[in-house]
Design brief:
alpha/beta, UDP N-Acetylglucosamine Acyltransferase, domain 1, 12-stranded mixed sheet, 39 strands, repeat, UDP_GlcNAc_AcTrfase_non-rep
Length: 343
């Protein structure tokens, strides 16, 4: 599995800036931990001090970077983080997941479920209910429940303790991390004669191709129609997505974000950690919602937002800077008042 520096450069589509082409690299490591036979990368200026002190045998750096530790070879790449990811795939190939088809004897698969036992893998404790369909190459983890008439595409990977409720649709190459819940009831009640009466949630969830949903994230079924997670979208751990939400293609939704009912996110929206989005709001394409942003009304795409309610990010930063100056301003006012009273 070892690679020469020249082989590494070809693998990651990079150029050797410094170092002999025959230098042998045998593994990967962080900047502050890698040794003389290992590869690391500089993807963020925050880690420049670690980079300058690294003992790594080789480092992938942004194009234009030529200085660095004398003991390290350098490979320049357009995107060092992505390039390093390509190298990681090579070095961990020996320990990568191996798909071994078959149904474990302690799995419970209904006779009416549609799947090819020779082309899927069902782990111990998993339950596949009546009418469910599972595409070739998909793997259902331990204690995962696939509800009635759920349809799952090809080459999906569901880890342990995932729950997919009845009639939900899962596309191809979807990854569901442990504890993800797809299709739980939406949170809907009406107050009738002083009591909260549950509103039936009869819709489904549609998870499109190449989506990944993080551990203990919940995606509620629609009250009617569909809750949709668009193609290529990546959802982090501990996210709540409510009923009838429509998330576009290739969005990023980060941990502890809460999205209320009937919200629509256009394509390529980024919602950072702990973002809150109120119900029935539309967010335009390529909008970026910084951490803890609160969205209470429709916002246009192509801009970065912060604060609560959401507004221009730089304006929010200036406001915060002004707030930090308040203690000094208060002291100045007190001093001026004292001076005025003495006069």
């Amino acid at each position: 599995m070892a690679l020469t520096l020249s082989e590494l450069a070809r693998l990651v589509d990079g150029d050797i800036v410094r170092g002999g082409p025959d230098l042998l690299i045998e593994g990967i490591g962080a900047l502050d931990e890698a040794g003389g036979s290992e590869l690391s990368f500089l993807g963020n200026e925050k880690y420049r001090n670690q980079y300058l002190a690294t003992r790594a045998g080789a480092v992938i750096v942004p194009r234009g970077v030529t200085e660095g530790p004398e003991t390290s070879a350098l490979i320049a790449a357009d995107n060092p983080s992505f390039a390093f990811g390509l190298a990681v795939k090579h070095f961990v190939a020996a320990t990568a997941r191996v798909f071994t088809p078959g149904i474990h004897p302690r799995a419970c698969v209904d006779e009416s479920a549609k799947l090819d036992p020779a082309k899927v893998r069902i782990h111990a404790g998993a339950v596949v209910m009546a009418g469910a369909e599972i595409g070739d190459g998909s793997e259902i983890g331990p204690n995962t429940v696939v509800g009635e008439h759920v349809k799952i595409g090809r080459d999906c990977l569901f880890y342990a303790n995932v729950s997919i409720r009845e009639r939900c649709l899962i596309g191809d190459r979807v990854i569901l991390q442990p504890g993800a819940v797809i299709g739980s009831d939406g949170y809907g009640y009406e107050v009738i004669e002083g009591r909260h009466v549950k509103v039936d949630q009869v819709g489904i969830v549609e998870v499109q191709d190449d989506v990944e949903i993080g551990a203990n994230t919940t995606v509620d079924r629609a009250r009617f129609g569909r809750t949709v997670i668009g193609q290529g979208t990546k959802v982090d751990n501990l996210v709540q997505i409510a009923h009838n939400v429509q998330i576009g293609r290739h969005c990023l939704v980060v941990s502890q974000t809460g999205i209320a009912g009937s919200v629509k996110l256009a394509d390529y929206v980024v919602a950072a950690a702990q973002v809150g989005i109120a119900g029935h709001v539309k967010v335009g394409a390529k909008a970026i919602l910084s951490a803890r942003t609160g969205v209470t009304k429709d916002i246009e795409g192509g801009k970065t937002y912060g604060g609560n309610p959401a507004h221009d990010y730089m304006e929010e930063q200036r406001s915060r800077a002004h707030v930090r100056q308040l203690p000094k301003l208060i002291e100045r006012v007190k001093a001026l008042e004292k001076k005025a009273s003495e006069e």
